[in-house]
Amino acid sequence: MCFDPAAFRQHVQTVLDRYAEHFAVPVDVHEVLRRQIAEGSDIHSRRTFPGHVTTSAIVLDRAGRRTLLISHRALARWLQPGGHYEAPEELTDSALREAVEETGLQGLSLDSWHAETNLPIDIDSHVIPARPERGEPEHWHHDIRYVVRADESAGLRPDLAEVEKAAWHDVSALAAIMPRALRHLDERRLIRHSSP
């Protein structure tokens, strides 16, 4: 399949604009990504700086009470599964692939909310520390996030090359990782908080 970087930029621009309108996110929140799109940067490539597209999966159990997080080896913190976009994937397929690769879970499915809205639940641009051993300066990840459902009883087999471990947590753990995404999940009733 032939991949067109300009068409990908236009697609990301459309997704970004629709997302910002739907969730009332100010335009300046994604200033770096918008500038890179306007400048014609190859945002699909992990070798593009100052930033590039990544995707991630907010993995929830069927009831929406628990979320599956990975302990990221390089960043030394609990995060949602995710990683670099690989052309010519669809953004949703990229998020699902990353979730499977990092957790080893099978039978994952995109939440039906995405089919109804054709939107990600969150888009977050954040700075990643430099990794001189990989020739990577400090840069931005423009992370496009999707909700993925999983059976909590399914066996975890995390990729130990990048992940120290994977474990289920109460959805409240997302408050420290992605507060805006947690708010969106709450507003769309995609999660249920545990009783005190």
- Helices, by number, come to 6
Strands, count: 8
- Overall structural class, as computed from helix and strand content, comes to alpha+beta
Reported for the largest beta sheet, the result is:
8 strands, mixed
| Beginning-to-end CA distance, first to last residue | 51 Å
Topology-level CATH name: Nucleoside Triphosphate Pyrophosphohydrolase
> Which term fits the overall shape?
globular
What is the annotated CATH architecture? Answer: Alpha-Beta Complex
What is the CATH top level name?
Answer: Alpha Beta
Summed over residues and divided by their number, the pLDDT gives a mean of 94
What fraction, in percent, of the residue positions are helical? Answer: 25-40%
What would you report as the Rg, rounded to the nearest angstrom? 16 Å
What name goes with the CATH superfamily?
Nucleoside Triphosphate Pyrophosphohydrolase
Would you identify the regions where 5 or more consecutive residues have pLDDT less than 50? none
InterPro entries: NUDIX_hydrolase-like_dom_sf, NUDIX_hydrolase_dom
GO molecular function: catalytic activity
Domain Nudix hydrolase: 50-192
Pfam families: NUDIX
Properties at a glance:
single chain; 196 residues; alpha+beta; Nucleoside Triphosphate Pyrophosphohydrolase; eight-stranded mixed sheet; 6 helices; 31% helix
